[in-house]
Amino acid sequence: MWNALVGVMKEAYTAGLGEGAVPRPVMMPLVRGELVGLIWVRPLKVGQDALAGIAELSNVASAASADEVVLAWETHDVATACELPVVGLVPCLNMVLAAPGGHVLHQFPYSEQLLSRSPEGWASVAPDWRPAPAPEPGGELVPPIQAAVNFSFTPIELDHPDPFGVTVVLMEENGYRISLTEAFAR
Q1: CA 146 → CA 8, 54, 83, 137, distances in Å?
Q2: What is the value of pTM for the model shown?
Q3: Which residue of 55, 82, 107, 131 pairs with 147 in a disulfide if CB–CB is 3.0 to 4.6 A?
Q4: Separation of alpha carbons 169 and 176, rounded Å
């Protein structure tokens, strides 16, 4: 499952960079090894809104009672959105595999190869994936990612007969893009 998720994220980054932007942070909750779906962060405003929006990715994982989560984000993108210092490899696709007992940080650095530039100045680039450093058990996570990991395993308390379904609907109404797998689609 891990290799498939890494492949999907690298493909998403290749497509996004080709269109001039890195994909937004995304969470992939798992329940007993089965992928619940992909939750892409809503449009964010720089600062506190970005910190909160990324942390809120945890809501679906919590509502699904996920036992593992995978989060993916780009180093510079999250640092800029959250007004944090850029720490770590840049540019870099980061992925963390987390469970209640801990997490492992995986980093996939790349360089950008210019493909074209639009008349407006937007660059279309292709990632040239560099050798990945060794995975880091307990590796340092930026605050909003750490918060999303922590909250993913905090039981959600909703007085509703379908806390998972209502959480998905509320998050979609707030601008999160959610794509559930068939087993979890309602």
Answers
A1: 22, 10, 16, 14
A2: 0.91
A3: 55
A4: 10
